Amino acid sequence: MIREQKYLLQLREIHDLLAEQRWFLETQKEGMRYLVAKLDGKIVGGATLTPLTGKREHIAEFGIFITQSYRNLGLGTILTKALIEVSRKSGFEIIQLSLFSNNKRARHVYKKCGFKKAGKLIDDIKFPDGTYTDTIIMEKILRQTKSTQKKP
Question: Which of 42, 88, 106, 148 lies most in the core, judged by the most C-beta atoms within 10 Å?
Answer without folding.
Answer: 106
